[in-house]
Amino acid sequence: MTTAPRVDQVFDLDGLLSDEERAWQQRARAFAQERILPIIEDDFEQRHFRRELVHELGAQGFLGMHLEGYGCAGAGAVSYGLVCLELEAADSGWRTFVSVQGSLAMSAIRRYGSEEQKQRWLLGMARGELIGCFALTEPQGGSDPAAMTTTARRDGDDWVIDGAKRWIGLASVADVAVVWARVDDPTGPEGENAAGEGGAAVRGFLVPTTTPGYAATPIEGKLSMRASVQCDVVFDGVRIPADAMLPEASGLSGPFGCLNEARYGIVWGAMGAARSCLEAALERSREREVFGRPIGANQLTQAKLADMLLELEKGILLALHLGRLKERGQLTPAQISVGKLNSVREALEIAHQARTILGGDGITSAYPVMRHAANLESVRTYEGTDEIHQLIIGRALTGLNAF
């Protein structure tokens, strides 16, 4: 029997990458294989978030790696995407951690924060010594942030935040929460121009999670993302000083700018989960014998494998194209939506096809496929559902807003 090449060697992605990009990918792949894969099945089963890996991720330079200064690596968009791909090939939960920490919380502070806020938080977050979360989604739903009910009102020299958020990653382990709230006086100095995109008077605030009135409770009963933490968060008279506001974020353009950073990481990351599923199916197709020969020798099985590889490589090429656009400052929100919608949709289809090749064993933890499929159901929902991205693309095509 001939030796099968690795899935990613059938199409030579390496030939399209720089030495620096390959180095980041190799570092992330080694970390995923050595530090995550040996423990992830048990962590998923036990619903355990392995916090000790956070510092190690920081030591590798992965946290906020696409940002400049303040201890961040200043890596290119493609390098960051490749790291997301390799981490999600191990588990979506750990790519999600890097996204929440770097693309959401750190990006919000780096892009919209004061110099004092950047100095206070970013270096520790880049090192993995501090954890951040991004509190935008509310219990009634995440697709309409303009309808948020969490409020921040002025009381003397302070702000007081009341409300609730849901499905907030890392909120119970975070040191600081980036909280988005409606301001009570959009016509005053603090609210000037706060309406922004969508007409909502929304501002961002940095809330240390030790502040009285902040309470984060991990959501129980999850059948997906079980090795990571998502929470319900309540703000009950949370009092913070005036300088806790992010001075450069006005309106929904603030959180949307961060969401686009996270969506970009998903474009790459979902392809990592897909690759892992295809690799498991390919290996099993060469080992599992039915009717006297490996099932990989059957035409129907080879057709499935070929289709899976086709969509994987198309997805990675799309991610690479978007990365190059991002590095040139030309990437648009609609293009990100094309990538996010395609990558997650096709990753789920690859996971489902891989499961059929694995047979009954495919539903067990002997293979990563069902874990990836379950996680991808969450990835499909957060940072914009399929329907939201279809509407973003539709608006770009027609010039008509159907939201």
The CATH C-level name of the largest domain is Mainly Alpha
Largest sheet: 7 strands, mixed
User: How much helix is in the residues?
Assistant: 40-55%
Count of DSSP-assigned helices: 11
Q: From N to C, what is the helix and strand string? A: HHHHHHEEEEEEEHEEHHHH
The CATH architecture designation of the largest domain is Up-down Bundle
What is the CATH superfamily classification of the largest domain? Butyryl-CoA Dehydrogenase, subunit A, domain 3
What does this structure look like?
The protein has about 400 residues and is an alpha+beta fold. The chain folds into 3 domains: about 5-125, Acyl-CoA dehydrogenase/oxidase, N-terminal domain (Butyryl-Coa Dehydrogenase, subunit A, domain 1, Orthogonal Bundle), CATH 1.10.540.10; about 130-250, Beta Barrel (Butyryl-CoA Dehydrogenase, subunit A, domain 2), CATH 2.40.110; about 255-400, Butyryl-CoA Dehydrogenase, subunit A, domain 3 (Up-down Bundle). The chain has 11 helices and 9 strands. The strands form 2 sheets. Strands 1, 2, 3, 4, 5, 6 and 7 form a 7-stranded mixed beta sheet that branches. Strands 8-9 form a two-stranded antiparallel ribbon. A hairpin with a 2-residue loop joins strand 8 (about 290) and strand 9 (about 295). Helix 4 (about 75-90) packs antiparallel against helix 5 and helix 8 runs antiparallel to helix 9. The N and C termini lie far apart (about 55 Å). Keywords: FAD, Flavoprotein, Oxidoreductase, Transit peptide. It catalyses: glutaryl-CoA + oxidized [electron-transfer flavoprotein] + 2 H(+) = (2E)-butenoyl-CoA + reduced [electron-transfer flavoprotein] + CO2.
